Sequence to fold (164 residues):
Amino acid sequence: MACSYACLGKGFKNVSDIKIYFLGIEKCPQLLKNFFEDPRSELWLYFLYAQSASFHQAVLKLEGQTVSAIEAAKEINQLKDNLTQKQINQFLPFMVRQLIVKSKDNVTDIDEEFVKRAATEFYQTSREYLEQWLSYQRNGDILLGRFKKGPRMGRRSKISECIN
Fold:
């Protein structure tokens, strides 16, 4: 996951070069041609990249070898709270806002209200997914996210031993 996130970041520095390359080849796949010709595509790439940062940080913390169920639930709840705040504020990352302003100067006017609605829906859907995941019941009596203070595990393999 860390490599893919870092690679994504490097790829964004070369979006225009990648676009020029694909639009310049003779047999460019129609899907890529449509994608790179749509002025909103770059905006959505930047939006998703900005959101992936929050998820990436949460996953890094959850992948730790000494993370208890309490700490995992706390991390997921923090991510959920972050998504809630973004939804309430109709948050758009800086680069997305810049591309919207830039589009107003060009012929391609991107509808800012549509982008805000889509972003808000993304935050809501992500939050609802996390809520469903948190309410997953194991053995009918353990509700992840509502654990009482438990032991700190040295390895993930020991978690199943404690549950059973």
User: Anything to note?
Assistant: The radius of gyration is 20 Å. The beta strands are 137-138, 142-143. The chain is about 70% helix and 0% strand.
